[in-house]
Amino acid sequence: MHDPRGATRPLNSLGFARPPAETRVVVAMSGGVDSSVVAAQLKAEGYDVIGVTLQLYDHGAALKKKGACCAGQDIHDARRVAERIGIPHYVLDYENRFRESVIEEFADAYLAGATPVPCIRCNERVKFRDLLQTARELDADCMATGHYIRRFDGPEGAELHMAADPDRDQSYFLFSTTQEQLDFLRFPLGGLASKAQTRALAAEHGLIVADKPDSQDICFVPEGNYAAVIEKLRPGAAEPGDIVDLDGNVLGGHRGVIHYTIGQRRGLGIGGLGDPLYVVRLDPDSRQVIVGPRAALATRIVPVAEVNWLGGGDFAAAGEREIMVRIRSTRPPAPAILRPTGPTTAEVELAAAEEGVSPGQACVFYDSGSTRVLGGGWITIRESRR
């Protein structure tokens, strides 16, 4: 970067050509160790830091629940961390926005037989849209989060890259980050070698959350019981129906499509029928759970919609290309061919068939020769072509 007088000024650690004290950064503080360390590190480097925590759902219920982000205890922890490091801290009530933008769609998607990923929608529609706008209103130069992902300045603007620690990489959950958002965001933890390093930094700064366990559940789904949440949000949703095979033969009954996920084998209640059977498809309209052999789960052609493209240039005009894709957060990227079919739609052909590909899940694109995240889309319908 150059100042008006033409002299080159050194960039600070957040990429601005000015002293840290003249750089305002809003840190999204969840109350966990990751975002707390980000706030403490940036404050120690001399930045003008403001901490913001979101209250996303009922505070009373949150206080009774452990192991999820943005609960009552987490808000309390974030406030104590802010006091410890000496930064202003605000709690914003985003409960209505969160319910409308994330929870309602989660319920509808589940009822439609999909397997949604609400954490991605939360990043996309609440944290990186509404909170980011609030950061701008606070005259911040950027917003920092505790996500494990890297941002590099490339020849065509900011690029998104996988974290240095593959075990902590959160790129799957951040594929829908837009280019405009990426220009404003910073991810200070993305280059750390391990979570142990983060906890060591937390202890170094004397933070009360240094040994706090990582959140495991989706914040509004206690103990991972999706069906219970859906029944509460959509009374009567758990209507019974038939379990049928691929030819439509009735094999048994079920207590509601919302209790099943594609790829599920256990708990079907139709044992003793020979080879193991898996949930291959869900049909909410007919209230059918369709089961079949494991081979029927294999999918090579994956249609995706709502594509967010971070690879530069015009997505639809780019044509066919070889990439790596991840269709589940727990699996490493695998080779595939990406074929745009419209401005925001595409067909992904996997080099090797994958099992359990489910509508509602994300399909994230990576550059074949680097750690760069090229964007991604949402899996729409499932085809059984192999």
From TrEMBL:
Q: What is its main location?
A: cytoplasm
Site (Interaction with tRNA) at 147, 361
Q: Name one Pfam family in it.
A: tRNA_Me_trans_M
- Disulfide pairs here are 122-219
MF (Gene Ontology): ATP binding; methyltransferase activity; tRNA binding; tRNA-uridine 2-sulfurtransferase activity
- The domain of life is Bacteria
Q: Where is the tRNA-specific 2-thiouridylase MnmA-like C-terminal domain?
A: 304-379
Name its GO BP terms in alphabetical order. Answer: methylation; tRNA wobble position uridine thiolation
Q: What protein name does the entry list?
A: tRNA-specific 2-thiouridylase MnmA
Lineage, top ranks: Bacteria, Pseudomonadati, Pseudomonadota, Alphaproteobacteria, Rhodobacterales
